[in-house]
Design brief:
10 helices, Nitrilase/N-carbamoyl-D-aminoacid amidohydrolase, alpha/beta, two-stranded antiparallel ribbon, 17 strands, Rossmann-like_a/b/a_fold, glutaminase activity, EC 6.3.5.1
Length: 424
C-alpha cells in the first residue's frame, strides 16, 4: 500500500500594516514558491492580509472591506494560484456584527471554511481584545455570507474552470458553494464559519492561531486526540530574547505528547510599529523538528517546506496506550468535507514521472546566542523602519558613552546585514 506522503509549506512574510497591495503580492509569491516545490498546503502568518500591526485601524470597517478585496483578488488571480493547493490565509472577519481574527481556507477558487481565533493574546505588547472577540462556541459551526466582491470572484472562477465536484458526503457542513444560476449572475455564497476541521480525502487538517499554542488548554491537544494529523499555526509573534526557545519547546512538546504534524508560520520584520516579528517558520513531526526558517533577515518572503509521512503519525499515536484511551473518549469534531487529496501519487506534487518523495529527516533546532539576538533583532528592525518611513538614513550623535556606543554597534550590525544581502 502506498504511503501517505504530503509536501506541506509554511512561510515567513515581511508584511506591512495597511499595505494591502504589497501584502497581496507577498502572499501570492509565497503560494508560487510553495506550488513550485510541490506543496499541496500553504499556511501564512496571522492577519497577513492587512498586517498584524494595524492597531486602531482594525476598528475601521475599511480595513475589513479591503481585506475581502485582497481575498477576491487572490481567488480571481489570472495565475489561478489556489488551483490544486489548499491556501490558508489570515484576516479579520465580521460575523453577526462581531469582529474576529480568522483563518480563511481557499481551494480551487472556493472559500472552504472561516475559522475564528478561540484564544486572544492580551498581555505584554498585545491588545487583541481591543479589536476582536474570541469564538466561544467550541465545536460550533454556523454559516457566513461572503461579501459580494468575493461572491463575484468565486462565481467568475467557477464559470472559467467549470464546476468542481463536491466530495466527502456525510451529514456535516459542505464546503462547496452553489453554482451560478446564469452566466452573469453571482448568487449569494454561504460558507462554514466556526471551530471545524477539514476532512480531506486522505487526511484531517485543522488550524490554530498564535496564542492558542501558548494557552494552557491548547486546541491542538483536543484536535490530535480527535485524529487530526496536520495542525497549522499562523502567528504574529514578536521578538523577545529567548522566546524562540519557548516556541520550539511548545511545538515539539505538543507533537511529542500527542503525535502529528505542526506547521508554524510567522511574520518577520517591522510592520510599522515598535515591535519586530522574528519569523522562524518551522515544521515538526512527532516531537522532532524537520524544517526551520530563519529568525532574522531582510527577505520579503521565505517559504519552508517539508515532506511528511502521515502514516507515521498514526503509527506513533497507536503506540501510546494512554493516548489511545483518551482519544477513544473524545467526541468527533465538526467536519467540513473537501474533495481534495493532500498526498500525491508518490512523486513531487503528485506529478506522474517525477522523482519519488521521501520524508524530510529530522534536524537540530538552530537557536542563536543571546548576543546574536541582541544584535540582529534591533538591526533588522532599524532597516525595515528606515525604508518604510522613506528616510534617507539615520543621524547618529556620539557622546562616547555606553548608550550611544550601543546604538552605534546596532547601526553597524544593520549595515552589515544589508551589505551581506546585497552581496548575494
Amino acid at each position: 500500500m502506498a504511503r501517505r506522503l504530503a509536501t506541506l509549506a509554511t512561510c515567513n512574510l515581511n508584511q506591512w500594516a495597511m499595505d494591502f497591495e504589497g501584502n497581496l503580492e507577498r502572499i501570492k509569491d509565497s503560494i508560487r514558491q510553495a506550488k513550485a516545490r510541490g506543496a499541496t498546503y500553504r499556511v501564512g502568518p496571522e492577519l497577513e492580509v492587512p498586517g498584524y500591526g494595524c492597531e486602531d485601524h482594525f476598528l475601521e470597517l475599511d480595513t475589513v472591506s479591503h481585506s475581502w478585496e485582497v481575498l477576491a483578488a487572490l481567488i480571481s488571480d489570472p495565475e489561478d494560484l489556489t488551483r490544486g493547493i489548499l491556501v490558508d490565509v489570515g484576516m479579520p472577519v465580521i460575523h453577526r456584527g462581531v469582529m474576529y481574527n480568522c483563518r480563511v481556507f481557499l481551494l480551487d477558487g472556493r472559500v472552504l471554511l472561516i475559522r475564528p481565533k478561540l484564544h486572544l493574546a492580551n498581555d505584554g505588547n498585545y491588545r487583541e481584545t481591543r479589536y476582536f472577540a474570541t469564538w466561544k462556541h467550541r465545536g460550533g459551526v454556523e454559516t457566513h455570507r461572503l461579501p459580494d466582491v468575493v461572491a463575484r470572484a468565486v462565481a467568475a472562477r467557477r464559470r472559467g474552470a467549470g464546476d468542481l465536484a463536491d466530495g466527502g458526503g456525510g451529514d456535516d457542513v459542505d464546503a462547496g458553494p452553489p453554482s451560478p444560476t446564469s452566466a452573469g449572475a453571482a448568487p449569494p455564497q454561504d460558507v462554514p464559519f466556526g471551530d471545524a476541521v477539514l476532512q480531506l480525502r486522505d487526511a484531517l487538517l485543522a488550524a490554530e492561531t498564535c496564542e492558542e499554542l501558548f494557552t494552557p488548554a491548547a486546541p491542538h491537544i483536543g484536535l490530535a486526540l480527535a485524529g487530526v494529523e496536520v495542525i497549522s499555526n499562523g502567528s504574529g509573534s514578536h521578538h523577545q530574547l529567548r522566546k524562540l526557545d519557548q516556541r520550539l519547546d511548545l511545538i515539539r512538546g505538543a507533537t511529542a505528547k500527542a503525535g502529528g504534524v505542526y506547521l508554524y508560520s510567522n511574520q518577520r520584520g517591522c510592520d510599522g510599529g515598535r515591535l519586530y516579528f522574528d519569523g522562524c517558520a518551522c515544521v515538526a513531526v512527532n516531537g522532532q523538528l524537520v524544517a526551520q526558517g530563519g529568525q532574522f533577515g531582510l527577505a520579503e518572503v521565505e517559504v519552508v517546506t517539508a515532506v511528511v509521512d502521515l502514516d507515521e503519525i498514526v503509527s506513533y499515536r497507536c503506540s501510546i496506550s494512554s493516548l489511545r484511551e483518551q482519544a477513544s473518549s473524545v467526541a468527533a469534531p465538526a467536519l467540513v468535507h473537501v474533495d481534495f487529496r493532500l498526498c500525491g501519487g508518490g512523486g513531487r506534487g503528485g506529478v506522474a514521472g517525477s522523482a519519488p518523495l521521501h520524508p524530510t529527516r529530522p534536524i537540530s533546532p538552530k537557536i542563536l546566542l543571546p548576543q546574536e539576538e541582541i544584535a540582529y533583532g534591533p538591526a533588522c528592525w532599524l532597516w525595515d523602519y528606515l525604508r518604510r518611513c522613506g528616510a534617507c538614513g539615520f543621524l547618529l550623535p556620539l557622546s562616547g558613552g555606553a548608550d550611544s556606543s550601543s546604538v552605534c554597534a546596532i547601526v553597524g550590525a544593520m549595515c552589515q546585514v544589508r551589505v551581506a544581502v546585497s552581496a548575494l
